[in-house]
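Entry 14. Two folds queued back to back today. First construct below, sequence then structure tokens.
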Amino acid sequence: MPNVTAHTAGRKPTATPTPPRLKGYRYVGVIGKGSTAYVYRYRQEATERDVAIKVSNTHLDPKSGARFSTEATVMASFPHPNILTVYGAGITGDGRSYIIFEYAPGGSVKDIIAKQGAYPVDKTLDYGVQLASALYLAHRNRIVHRDIKTSNILITAQGLPAIADFGIATSLYDHRSTGYSPPWAPPEVLASNGSGDDRSDIYSLAATLYAMLAGKSPFEYAYAPRSLDELVECIMHKPVLPINRPDVPNAVQQVLMKALSADPADRYFTAVEFARALQDAQIQLYGHATPVTVQGIEPYPARVAIAPAAVQGNLPTAQAPAPKHRKPLIITAVVAAVLAVVGIVFAAVIMPNIDRSQHTTAAVVNPGMNGATSDGEDSDVTDGGGTAVPSPVELSGAYAGDGVKFTWSNPDPQDGDKYAWSVINNGDSASTGAQLTDDTSVSVPASDGAQTCIQVSIVRQDRRMSSTPATVCAVK
């Protein structure tokens, strides 16, 4: 089934436009076409590099001009290695708007799936972390893409996936209908005929990663609808089904299912949280992770747990889960090596950042604070929109029956601040998606074992978050 974009449905096809003559550029050929624009390949004569130039199909059209201007401005305003680079924009001699882009010789993910079939799991996770990083940067700049899909993910000359086509992007706070592509749109977008927010983008990115593994968008894959109306009906009323591929692990399926939840509140709170979940799956499956590439955000997830013995000066004992097929002898050797490295890192890095809370049975760890101290001093890392959001301070936790109450303080309270918190499972990774609260305290059920841990981030009204979550463990 071809993708249908709501804001272009019903338009009459136009004749193939003549490639414009642009000073300093030599026409090479056609890259692609859509209902509103053609994309041509040109050679920039001054640099002898190829570029892609998107040219409107209409002449002297104010709406088209505004859309092209928005796309060029948005894509140039927050450069990122996984967002297609914009080199310039203008109006042709016959009144058509155009934008000059980085040329992506690898084509689109859609084209690659059509030619080569579904992607391997490890490459899909790699792309997912990179694209989620770019998406988070857009959201942090208050921009929602609104049309993430396989045809809008292009492969650059460096082999990187890059988000293209911000033509219907809009402000995070602008909920007016602007357009969407039904196979990749979440239920709330279909129900409102186009309105969506950053959580809608997270859904669409998850649908894109799903298609990389399944070959089709989630509901086309699961239900094989025969019409657009039937597809929309499936998205609105039927569940997303797991991918029927034996080599797609359950850990990956779970991450995608959460991001594809019908209720936006059940999805990952931010694109960087989605990236963290993908990193967790990478570490669990392959022992490595693709870094998150956003200024002010740690590239890798913090994986630190402090047990009571550690506070007394003994080394923590924690080991990463090993694949079941490894032989016991190999596991033993790997664990011994990991423990040795953990010991060195703990002594050199973590111990200086441990602060005893006021409660005698809790330990607080704020790893990777980029120089920020636990008394609330901000690091000097910024995100282009002001001072970096600090981590919570004065964390403590105490057992009370079958539960644990955690409290913290905000070193720089601002109007609209909220707190994203999640329980950490066995000191290894967040066992629950982040939940929001307006309070500086939360009560959770006690975890199995000797300690219960949570991580907490401050969330500003503009959705910027602490560059590093603060972690606290209450000990029985």
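Second construct, same run, same settings:
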Amino acid sequence: MKKLLLLSFFALFLISCGSTKNTGKVPEAIIGKNETKTVRKVNPHKNDKVSVRKNEEESEGTNNEESPKTIKKGIIDYAKTFQGTKYKFGGTTDAGMDCSGLVYTAFQKENITLPRISRDMATKGILISFKDIEEGDLVFFKTSRKNTITHVGLVVEAKRGEVKFIHSTTQAGVIISSLDEDYWKKAFVEVRRVI
């Protein structure tokens, strides 16, 4: 009986997506830093990787201040390139990622640093009423018996009362789901806006 209980606890731990991989102390979200950086772009139809060098010279003559809508679209579009990526606890690449790894990586692409763990992400930004939810907001869930946030998703569509979000699940990897699905509706906790 004791072994069965221990095995059940271990299985619940693996199912939870609240990655605890320590990546060091990270600052709160910083929007719009214009620094030289190397980013990885993934063609959603192929797994070819292309490194792109982005710096101030390339953006000369353009407005360096991106609108929040443009930043959110960039985050969502980049997150969608990972659709079909398998689940990997603590992962942040197309070789495998967990829920918080997906969100962390998508925001990092736009120079916005979030905490690496979903429960810590839920302390950033501002709390939003569900009726005010928008694309680019973060949705948080409690997917285990623990009384703590264990899962995060990125809202990719919020139209006519239906909310769709991209996230990484242990069973299907990176997918888009709806908050109308019973499981997610019951596990839903809150919405937060970082941008």
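Quick look at the second one. The chain has a mean pLDDT of 77. Residues 67-193 form a domain with the endopeptidase fold (from Nostoc punctiforme) fold (CATH 3.90.1720.10).
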